[in-house]
Design brief:
It contains 12 helices and 10 strands. By secondary structure, it is α+β, with helices and mostly antiparallel strands. The chain folds into 3 domains: about 110 residues, Butyryl-Coa Dehydrogenase, subunit A, domain 1 (Orthogonal Bundle), CATH 1.10.540; about 110 residues, Butyryl-CoA Dehydrogenase, subunit A, domain 2 (Beta Barrel), CATH 2.40.110; about 150 residues, Butyryl-CoA Dehydrogenase, subunit A, domain 3 (Up-down Bundle), CATH 1.20.140.10. A hairpin with an 8-residue loop joins strand 4 and strand 5. Helix 8 packs antiparallel against helix 9, helix 8 runs parallel beside helix 10 and helix 8 runs antiparallel to helix 11. The radius of gyration is 21 Å and the shape is globular. It starts with 6 loop residues before the first helix and ends with a helix. About 50% of the residues are buried. The model has no long low-confidence stretch (mean pLDDT about 95). Bound molecules: flavin-adenine dinucleotide. Flavin-adenine dinucleotide binds next to strand 1, strand 3 and helix 12.
């Protein structure tokens, strides 16, 4: 068993850390206040190849393994969790359906464009269908040239900037999972309307929008997989996406540890640094221990994916453990800051807000537990 990154992985991770500290960190507070990524930073993220991390080199990407990709997401999240989710949704749920289920022709057409920074998004959630995604009502009808889609999607991360939308819809009003198909829709398709950005509590450098589809004609060649494969495609994209959220949580918790430990050393009360108090030391010890546990779970899930082995259960475990851990990490680090932690002058205030959504998107903690429990019970014949 080898817990070390190889030289190339170390170098890559360090390069991303330097980029995040040098280019992202000075912009975080402004992006948080503005609720949008700095356009200059978006261009830099593009130019540095962050939008082709996981695509094979034949499609213009860097072809990173999942463990290295995870380290990239964690390093970004250590500075700005919003930038991390933007990169993670694009490289994960936004593009995996094309990479895995698109025709070779579609892959050749679209993936090089995505690698260069035409953003991808993933549109499953609807006003009435969240955790119960199979109850979605967006419709698809067959036409002479393909399909016509109508319906509404919400919480589309990256949608404000995206060129590509992976959309799931119910074909022929057929009920249940098997009635759902998946399509790739271009932004400029008539009838596709991108709504306003959500005014979110956290992750404010990342955007999430609603989407209205009114008789949107999609060519048959832009269907992903076979008719009726849409739910399966969305769920397998989410398996990988959950590894990304686990690493995002690890990076954010690392940031909480960074600021919590530094503050504890600097802040003096009762004539000594508060770091000398056992109560504070225990908070840091618990934070560091739980962070390490979560990182190991994320690495295991990523490693399984890289080995071509089944990883859905481990991805759900990593996402559950890491996102819950990040919430506790932010809470402890804020407690260490006392009243100052409640002020926007300190980064922990933003980390605390950013951490909250990790337990909600790409499947809530309750849904992760359902996935894990189903897998556990099946081993016992349940
Ligand atoms: C910032 C942000 C970005 C997002 N980005 C995307 C995106 O890019 N694409 C996309 O498609 N979606 C996206 N989402 C949507 C997200 O995936 C959903 O919010 C999530 O799946 C939960 O759905 P819901 O909000 O409708 O909550 P609901 O499903 O209504 O759940 C409400 C509560 O009930 C619980 N619950 C529901 N069912 C069960 C059950 N069977 N057992 C126990 N508890 C249950 C939930 O865990 C939750 O606590 C995003 C959301 C946010 C906040």
């Amino acid at each position: 068993m080898d817990f070390d990154l190889n030289e190339q992985q170390e170098m890559f991770t360090k390069g991303v850390r330097d980029f995040a500290r040098g280019e992202i960190a000075p912009r975080c507070a402004k992006m948080d206040a503005a609720g949008i990524i700095d356009p200059e930073l978006l261009d830099m993220v593009r130019d540095h190849g962050f939008f082709g991390l996981c695509f094979p080199e034949t499609y213009g990407g860097l072809g990173l393994d999942t463990v290295t990709y995870g380290r990239v997401v964690a390093e970004l999240a250590r500075v700005d969790a919003g930038v991390a989710i933007m990169v993670s949704v694009h490289n994960g749920v936004g593009s995996f359906p094309i990479l895995q289920f698109g025709s070779e022709e579609l892959r050749r057409e679209v993936l090089p464009r995505m690698s260069k920074g035409e953003l991808a998004s993933f549109c499953v959630t609807e006003p009435g269908a969240g955790s119960d995604a199979a109850s979605m009502t967006t419709r698809a009808e067959r036409t002479e040239t393909g399909y016509r889609l109508s319906g509404e999607k919400i919480w589309v991360t990256n949608g404000y900037h995206a060129q590509f939308f992976v959309v799931t819809a119910r074909l022929d009003n057929e009920p249940g999972h098997d009635g759902i198909s998946a399509f790739l829709v271009d932004r400029d398709t008539p009838g596709l309307m991108v709504g306003a950005k959500e005014d979110k509590m956290g992750l404010r450098s990342s955007d999430a929008v609603s989407l209205v589809l009114e008789n949107v004609d999609v060519p048959g060649a832009r269907r992903l997989g076979e008719e009726g494969d849409g739910f399966k495609i969305a769920m397998s994209a989410l398996d990988g996406g959950r590894i990304g959220v686990a690493y995002q949580s690890v990076g954010l918790a690392q940031a909480c540890l960074d600021v919590g430990a530094r503050y504890a050393i600097e802040r003096e009360q009762f004539g000594k640094p508060i770091a000398t108090k056992q109560a504070i030391q225990w908070m840091l010890a618990d934070l560091a221990t739980e962070l390490e546990q979560a990182r190991l779970l994320a690495d295991k899930a990523a490693w399984l994916k890289d080995q071509g082995r089944s990883y859905g259960r481990e991805a759900a475990m990593a996402k559950l453990a890491a996102s819950e851990m990040a919430g506790r990490a932010a809470d402890r680090a804020l407690q260490i800051h006392g009243g100052y932690g409640y002020s926007k002058d300190y980064d922990i205030e933003r980390y605390y807000r950013d951490a909250r959504v990790l337990r909600i998107y790409e499947g809530t903690s309750e849904i992760q537990r359902l996935v894990i429990a189903r897998s556990v019970l099946s081993e016992y014949g349940g």
